[in-house]
Design brief:
Oligomer: single chain
Largest sheet: none
Order of helices and strands: HHHHHHHHH
Helix content: over 70%
Amino acid sequence: MTSAATGSGTDGPEDRHTGCADCDPGLLDHLKCRAKGIQAQADYNKAHETELDDARKQYDSARSSYNEARKAARPDEDDLGKQLNQMIDQLACLVDEPNKIRLLKRAFGHVQHRLRRCYPSRGCEFSDDCDFDRTVDDCQPDAVAATIADIERRTAAAKATFLDLIAEPVEAAKRLAKLKTEVAEIGTQMASDSRRVNFKELYAAALVARDHLETLWRGFANVNAYVDCLCRALTCQIKGYAAISQLKGKEAVHKCHRDQDVAACEKLRDHTTDEVMAEYIRLKHEAYEESKRQPEQNDERTDNRDRDREGSRDRDNENWHGHQDYGRP
């Protein structure tokens, strides 16, 4: 009978397996998922690249146009202000009833307050700093979708503000033209037959026109205030897209690992016997490596025992010679 027949001769292929302490095929899976995350970021950036480039061009254009619009409107503003002040004084005289003028002013104040609630006209209403760094760093895989939704909402608000502001140079010119028509109409009626004119109503119209002049620039005190608000809205968009890009990468990596786990479980279920044999080979190799270390450990223990015995004999010899010398002259 050959040694192979007895099972004590040449080992099978699995018995010749040699292990590798640094072997980790899972690193490949990790690299694949990381690559998918990078690709997801790149795809998102590519999808919004044109949008952000256009926004930057719109920002530069609006900043210049707004400055020009305010300079061009300044003479008309001064002229309309003088006209309205004169009209209000004249109409107060034409009404010639101080109590009615006082009530008209109070009524206008109440309505103006309600208007401000609808249209604040307080300059920059955008206050989100859009600091998403910590939000992205601390975001756990299960919270990625909700975090993206929140940042998208805030980015959309910044975009809406930005689009509203870049239209201001044109919209302000329209408001100025409308106001000039409004003041001219009041002047025309004041110059018409006084028997057909309601001077109280004209007085109220003049107060409204003056308010339109005061809110012509929506509460922006100067060009710098407008540009600062416009810049904040644009910056928030850029930060928002950058944060979402990173989260899209995290989301892709997480999904990749989750898909890999599902695939691994399916493989384990469909090829259970193969996995058992693979685990058997691994355990057998560990046992083999352990058995190779045992003789070395045994030899070390033997050497220690020999050294202990030699040390003990040396001490015995010293003691014996000591007894022999004791009592000699």
